[in-house]
Amino acid sequence: MVRVGVVGYGVIGQRLADGVALQKDMELIGVSDVGPTLAVQALKEKGMPYDFYLALPEGENELARYDVPVSGSLPDLVQKCDIILDATSAGVGEQNKKLYAEYGKRAIFQGGEKTSVADVFFHGYANYDAGLDRQFLKLTSCNTTGLIRAVDCLHRAMGIENVIITIVRRVADPGDYHRGLTNALEVEPVPNHQAEDLMLIMPDIKATGTLVHTPVTHGHVITVIAKPKRETTKQEIVDLFRAHPRIKVVRIEDGFLGNASLFRYARDLGNPRGDMYEIAVWDETVTVFEGQIIFVVNIPQEAVVIPETIDGIRASMSMQSDGDEAVCLTNRYLKLGG
Ligand SMILES: NC(=O)c1ccc[n+]([C@@H]2O[C@H](COP(=O)([O-])OP(=O)(O)OC[C@H]3O[C@@H](n4cnc5c(N)ncnc54)[C@H](O)[C@@H]3O)[C@@H](O)[C@H]2O)c1
Questions:
Q1: What is the DSSP track for 57-71?
Q2: Which homologous superfamily is 142-299 in?
Q3: Fewer Cβ neighbours under 10 Å: the N or C end of the chain?
Q4: In the annotation, is 153 catalytic?
Q5: Span 85-135, pLDDT tens digits
């Protein structure tokens, strides 16, 4: 059993903890945060399914006020684990890295950290081998994780020369009051970081694209234009996506009109918090135009990075030397791909 700790119990950390708890070959030792955040209050209300470790001593009185049982400090948690999933606010992971290094532990950081924080910039499908037995991994961001999943699916089958991507980016997660109550679009310079990140992970593909922030919270939408190395058809593309355990093909005709339909559907399925690990591709958007493949993807930003982060544990801990075997196990335990 690989012993895993989650540091930073926010949007991503809560979901990582749930995902790790489902893996039959991993043990979730506990989670850590700085104080009685709403997520920590909910953890207590649920009867402490996960042990809680206090990251900063300053939070002690506040936690006592909310009666949250504390199992120890962050160094206590780190010492009990083989690997830490750091999902703290962007930039904090770099500080925490010193502690993980001090105890000779492995760690996986999330997209908000600088890429230089880790030995390897990681994606479970596209570069599993690069993560094998490496101490520090950094996972791709939510958009990049979903984008690479789709592009890698096609690249394996036919080879992709280049991609051009347009991202309509949700401006905040649900409940992010600190981002303000906005009603405006904001445009980023070209290329967006997701295109640059894709080239870091998949250096044989050229990529560029635009990004527009939009004031919605339920999912990003990416339009992808990909140039394949050989001729293909819409049917082949749809079949490849359908066969991928982490990609769900949906149809506008069936009522999946946009990002909010997918969120409602996930809630109706009874998925915790309305989470979806899968990216969704709309069938009716898959087109081959003048030799180029076009499709539109929904990225459920709060849950999409969970499977690939768990792949990262498998790689860093050398649990499986074969990437295909590793992603299959993660998928099986997360019940992905039927
Ligand atoms: N929210 C998303 O959609 C999303 C998607 C993919 C990746 N990410 C990345 O995941 C990481 C976490 O983002 P998030 O959205 O979960 O943020 P969040 O604000 O919801 O959670 C971060 C948590 O870390 C805690 N924290 C802060 N300092 C800490 C410390 N010193 N020790 C322990 N805990 C500490 C905070 O109290 C908070 O609970 C970031 O790198 C982000 O870029 C976020």
A1: GGGHHHHHHTT----
A2: Dihydrodipicolinate Reductase; domain 2 (3.30.360.10)
A3: C
A4: no
A5: 999 999 999 999 999 999 999 999 999 999 999 999 999 999 999 999 999
